[in-house]
Amino acid sequence: MTDDPQYGPGVLKYIEEAKKVLNKREKHLARIKELKFDTIAVHGLYTVEEALNHNQGAVIEPLYLSTAQAYRDSDEMEAALAYLIPTWCYTRFANPTTFYLEWVLSLLEGYKTGYETSCLVTASGMSAIMLAVDAFLVKQRKGPEKINFVSPIQIYGGTFQHFSVRKMKERGIEVRWVHHQEDITEWKEKIDENTRFLYSEAPSNPQQSFCDVKALVDLAHSWEIPFIIDSTCATPALMRPIAYGADIVIHSLTKSITSGGLAVGGALISRKQIVSKIKSDNPLFKENFAEYVKFLPFRDTGPAASPVNALFALNDLRTLRSKIDLVSQNCQKVAEFLSHHSHVYQVDYLGLPSFPLHGLAKRYMKLVDSGDGRGNEINRFGHLLSFRVDGPPQNARKVFDNFKIIFRAGDLGRIKSIATIPAISTHLQQGEEIRDTADVPPQLIRLGVGAEDPDDIIEDLDQALRSI
Fold it and tell me: I need a labelling partner for 52 at 20 to 30 A (CA). Which of 92, 184, 281, 326 fits?
């Protein structure tokens, strides 16, 4: 807000009105932050008062399908488009339905972290990744000719393509690959003065790679660069990286958070304020990164989420904690079954004590607001596992083709169990050499365990495995 003399009395009047609205919202926000995770997920910022006074008493947040906002006069339009008052203006910039979703995600990701957060919802998880990283890959006036960033090679295939092709091949930005992201020494060896950020995906898709979040945050900040993490498979119900100082958290809303399978979406949630040595004329860049992206790069590139998709996501995440608890327990039972199957030579699941990264994941993956009776939150390890079928790749394809209940698709995080063979789907474009390096063999089947009775999924897996 401003009292800049360049604005006339009409504009200043709208600014004063907006201050009252924002003050009221801040008071409500403070009350919401005192609530439990489940209550925030159900209600967000939508209140009984708003429903009765503005939305015909609608209990569920309304769906705003209009592409643009009308203004009362030229003064209100000027104030709005100069970002002097709250506005949604045009759905490429923002939308009221999307706004409800952004606030819920911001509050859940910031829950009990001790940090303020803000959120930008995008059309997909990949657009959220693009917006998060591109802001740090700009050429500085007196910066180096060659800049780089560091990422594990064990990441989602689409992210690998974006980094290796869109960034490295097309723009000449060096990606320095870490092969074992749990090894902090390997990260240290990759960083220099030209490194712009550290990026992680944990748990990784499909290998269940994991990192020491706090150690990487501390390492990044010692170089005055941000730590960015894709936490799609964990969701805020199991891990909130911002609690450990992470600067930016990415989610594909298409996956675990929503689970319904009806909508595509992404989210970028940032901590206030982020760490970065990038020089920016806009104070929002560090103070409120998600808002900076929304007002500038997002506005200009246009990867806006559909309001319909935003409403689907909003409605799906109301039961996030209980849903993730259920599918995590189901996945644990399925993983334990597979780990003893004669036709399976390896199971990758963080919940198995025999899995090499189990101890590391146990420090971070905890069901929010749960309790073991001794004051500790209960460990849960998510819905995603991978298993490797004995014998040649054809055996894995035969098992895959014989599923009766489990769906064959490239998706994950659904309420229904879904499997894929990453080597011929999500990671196909990487090529065999990179798949070998990233530990994605053709015998590996990725399984997202849903909310079915796990015994039925186990029976389906067993009959399929017995086909070889």
Answer: 92
Name the region of 38 (left: φ>0; alpha: ψ -120 to 50; beta: rest). Answer: alpha
The first and second tokens of residue 461, run together, are: 């897996």
Helix, strand, or coil here: 286?
helix
Q: What is the CB-side half-sphere exposure of residue 212 using CA atoms within 13 A? A: 15
Residue whose entry in the numeric block shows the structure tokens 């594909």: 252
The per-residue pLDDT for range 342-389, each reduced to its tens digit, is: 999 999 999 999 999 999 999 999 999 999 999 999 999 999 999 999
Say which residues have a Cβ less than 8 Å from residue 206's Cβ, sequence separation at least 6: 348, 384, 386, 422, 426, 427, 440, 444, 446
Q: Which domain holds residue 432?
A: 319-465
Q: Based on the structure, what is the number of domains in the chain?
A: 1
The backbone region for 90, taken as left when phi is positive above 0, alpha when psi lies in -120 to 50, beta otherwise, is beta
> DSSP E strands: which ranges in 371-428?
384-389, 407-408, 418-420
Q: In which band, very low, low, confident or very high, does the pLDDT at 430 lie, cut at 50, 70 and 90?
A: confident
Q: Judge whether 206 lies within some domain.
A: no
Does any domain span residue 186?
Answer: no
Residue 225 lies in a domain: no
Tokens encoding 134 = 């591109």
Domain containing 435 — which CATH number? 3.90.1150.10
pTM: 0.96
Question: What pLDDT digit, counting tens, does each position of 334-349 carry?
Answer: 999 999 999 999 999 9
